[in-house]
């Protein structure tokens, strides 16, 4: 069986061959298929141009035609990329076949196979999704005709899915024939985009598989005490370096192929998404056109997201190789082998990146920037079409995404997200707690245990103080009805008192009769919500304090290391154990980041409804709302006090999370200073080699992130407070 007939490659090969774009086709097949493809493309473009010329005064037809012409431009860009880089694309496919022969069956080839199968599944899902949306888009006339026939209506039915003009042909007589030809032509345009993306998936997945297989091979570095084992390890590392160079060359050649295609396609994507968004807003009263445009926008976003996502994966996999090298058993190899590993680490510090025009790095961050820029015009149109604003507001409130919802509603929706999140991460939490217990057993020396105990006690005091203050502020907020009732009794006043701290309705109960029971029930529910938030935060504090304690204990151990000449072997083993503990600490911090990042990412996603706030934390929206509410109730001292307590709780929680994350970063950086302050200059050369590797690894600080986009730190906190404070100042001035 041919290599490319494997299930993971067969879909891409079949579609590419039909389009005349498979590099292994004969010249005769290429000429025949490409001639047919361009003939179908031309017979579609000519009627579109005639339709614009004939209806130049009709704005709706012009808008529909602009989107179609941009798709045609994308067809030409992809086709030009194929023809210009046809030989390079074949070189990449040849490299893929050769790379499969390099790795042994159990030493990396199974990883290449896994990534190839994942790419094949992605190709099938992507091709079916894009083709399905294309069919939905192109069969609009038939859908409307079917609705008119079934429901006996008289809707205005367009002749074609895009504006077309046939001045010579009788359209009514040959309508279905012309419609079929147009369907085939549009399918050709869509297939050109799909084929380009499928080949890109093959290349990018293979690049990721190469870096992953190489990392696996490095982590399983063969070590031994005999000279033969040392020579085998040296040859093994030398071979890994050669494979690393092949992977880098593969990524660079892929970047040469896609660099200008990405640059042009990104510009077209921004234009077509803005135009389609305008059509969505302009046709809110026409459900059919609205649905059609929404499907079109979704297809564009999916196409753009997958492209940026695959580029991000290549960047991440090339960067992760450095961590794989650091986690390998390099400390058991010879000095000559370690020198080669050092060169490999230095080279892997520069990640492989795919760019658009060598100006913009393709990544998930680029995706957010493009979507934000494209949505700017849509946001402006939304403001000027306020009659449609109620629909957006209703859906946003229904999902808990409306920025001006009350803090109670936001709290409920976020609590549901936190509960689902905790259910997901419970196994990971157990792993981390087991590792904490193991770490305490590792530090048998009194110094190390005392430092861990000191940090654990600090964490306990901090947790008790935080839990008490947060729970007291929660009780203060929820007991407002009882406070006002007590004020009425003491002051003998008759002011209006709410029954509950937030609007609640019990249609099956007599609220006046069972008021205090229902009030206690609501207090219990709020307590559960607060305890859920506290449990998550306290677990975070526990793990973060343990990481800080590990770095501090390890730094103290290295600073106090003995360097007496007659203890060279013991000193070497001592430093080697420090290296292993350092690696455990880094792995622990990475696991904590994996647990935290998606929770923060979900909270961050609550503000995605407003594209202008896409780079801010979700706490900003909450604080912004509370500031507005505070300013608007300056004449009500009770409301002011309640909102001040709530604002203080929100900002205190945000500050503490950022502060603890900052401590983790600072302690990982301070460890480098501890190593520099040790008596490393008095140690023997092989011990100095170990210290050198530790120094190189400690140059990359441990950071806790929000969805790999924002680094949690005090700088982030000040940015949020500064931005939120500007809004508060403006409202205060207006008041």
From TrEMBL:
It is found in: Cell membrane. One of its GO terms (biological process) is signal transduction. InterPro entries: 7tm6_olfct_rcpt. It is a multi-pass membrane protein. One of its GO terms (molecular function) is odorant binding. The keyword Transferase does not apply. GO terms for cellular component: plasma membrane. The keyword Signal does not apply. This is Odorant receptor. It comes from Fopius arisanus.
